[in-house]
Each structure stands twice: as structure tokens, then as C-alpha cells.
Amino acid sequence: MHPQPNRRTTHAYGTPKNLLVYDRWGASGRPVVLLHGLFYDRTMWWPVAADLGGSCTAVAVDLPGHGDSARRDEYCLDRLTHDLAMLLSRLDLRRAPILVGHAEAARVAETFAAKYAVHSVITVAGAGLDDVPEAYRQFAVARPDQELADAYRERLLPRQTTATLQVDLGDSFPHLRDPAAFAALLRNVR
């Protein structure tokens, strides 16, 4: 009998006004929380999360107003990080997570790390699909929304300096350029 591939399960946390939808792969190992950038959704992490699921617990979250997560009347970074912390505590992960923030979500990851225990924060850039293989470009489809952009930029995205354990990969979409290599990098974060 051959081992089964890691399966993705989809879940929701919160009330209709603060609903966060997320996918999960695996149930053991270091937790890795994957946060997409503005206009994307959790599906951008599927290729790398599937590779992580055998040795890590991968959790890809739709940020508010993206994918299947509810829009909010007000976007507040403190509230979002609190909701994310409540979601993660519900998952009973037992270890501090690695947070991966894509593009604008780097700010969310940094703010979370300033308030809650994390193993490390990894940030990746979000522009340019030139080096991404054609098969993976379907996972990086931006869905621009001016109202959402204004709400996020006004309340969630102003950069501040924070003291976090951080690795800045800088490259655009490294998790889609080579999902297996990116998963190996995450498995080897010390």
C-alpha cells in the first residue's frame, strides 16, 4: 500500500462579521502559517502547502475581504492579528508557528510576531510572474478591488519597524517558482 498524498481540508473560524476561511494540510510538525498579499487569496499557497503537509502543519488563511473570508466594516491591524491568534489557538498547534507573509501581508506577520509567540517570520515579494512556471501562474491571479485596497492601505499597511526574527526572501513568488524548494526551506528554518 502506498502512502496517501497530503490532503487539504477547508475550515472557517469566527462569526459572519469576522469570518476567516483557511485550508489546512497535515496535523503534526512545525506549524507554518501562510498569509497572502493584497488581492490574492489562500489558493496561492496550495502548491507549497501540499509539499509541507507531510512534515509540517500548513495553514493558509484568506485575509478579510479576500477569497472566502468576510469583508469587514473596518479593517484594523490589531483586530486582524487578534482574530488570527484566536484561530491559531483553536487549532491546538502546540508549537510557535513560522509565519510567511506575501507582499503586504508581511506587515500582518510582523505585527502578529510583535504580540504573539512565533518561531520566525519570512517575507516574500509579490510582483512579477516572469520566473514562475506557467503551471503555477494560476495560483497567482490578482483580483483588484479599489475599495478593499483603500481600506487595507489606510488601516493595515503603514510600515513600522518591529523587532522580529525575520528572513526576507525578497524574490517575487519564490513559493510558486519552485514549490518543493520553498517547502524545503521552510522545513529547515531553525
TrEMBL record:
Residues of the AB hydrolase-1 domain: 32-171
Name recorded for this polypeptide: Alpha/beta hydrolase family protein
Alphabetically ordered keywords of this record: Hydrolase
Lineage: Bacteria, Bacillati, Actinomycetota, Actinomycetes, Micromonosporales
Cited InterPro entries: AB_hydrolase_1, AB_hydrolase_fold, AB_hydrolase_sf
GO cellular component, one term: membrane
Origin species: Actinoplanes derwentensis
GO molecular function: hydrolase activity
Gene3D superfamilies: alpha/beta hydrolase
Domain of life: Bacteria
Transmembrane segments: none
UniProt key word Electron transport: no
